[in-house]
Write a structure and sequence with these properties.
Elements lengths: L18 H8 L10 H22 L6 H15 L9 H16 L1 H4 L4 H10 L2 H24 L5 H9 L3 H6 L1
Helix pairs in contact: 3-4, 3-7, 3-8, 4-6, 7-8
């Protein structure tokens, strides 16, 4: 996926009294000198994105298009709070989907077997749940880009692309 941006340079300041400083210092990497913290941070970003992209590929076809659309809707509330600190992404995802089921009957809206979906989510690892939440964030970001640029948005097509669902999968599930 290509992200369009007019930004050519980015400076991020991390202060020693911020929680992120502790995470930066604790993360294992072969950067032992504090003068190399900038390189360490860059390396962490590259590693995280690589893990995200690889895990996203591994999760391709795991969900039906209706399950994926329901997840996007349910996880969307989290996407509105990008700096929220989370202790468990699996717990967050499960709670968001359960809330969608209990409060909004999302499973009925998307014609999803709630028990099957919750079982699928429960089988995921912590990082896979993080990835699913980030896939919902990716969906939301692309939707906002379309809306802000005046392009017509195609939700099902975007869902299929992000969740790795192919046309032939639509008939099987």
């Amino acid at each position: 996926m290509k992200v369009k941006s007019s930004v050519q340079s980015l400076t991020v300041h991390v202060f020693s009294d911020e929680p992120v400083w502790k995470h930066l210092k604790e993360f294992p990497a072969n950067f032992v000198d504090e003068a190399m913290l900038e390189d360490k941070a860059k390396n962490m970003i590259i590693m995280l994105n690589t893990l995200y992209q690889n895990t996203k590929t591994q999760l391709a076809k795991y969900f039906t298009i209706n399950e994926a659309a329901m997840i996007v809707e349910c996880a969307g509330e989290y996407a509105l709070v990008p700096m929220m600190r989370v202790s468990s992404y699996k717990e967050l995802l499960m709670n968001q989907v359960k809330r969608g089921i209990e409060k909004y009957n999302s499973h009925q809206k998307y014609q999803v077997d709630k028990d099957v979906l919750l079982n699928k989510l429960n089988q995921l690892t912590e990082f896979e749940c993080f990835t699913v939440i980030k896939m919902a964030d990716e969906w939301e970001r692309e939707w906002l880009e379309d809306r802000n640029s005046g392009r017509v948005s195609n939700g099902p097509e975007r869902t299929m692309k992000i969740f790795g669902i192919e046309e032939e999968d639509l008939d099987e599930k």
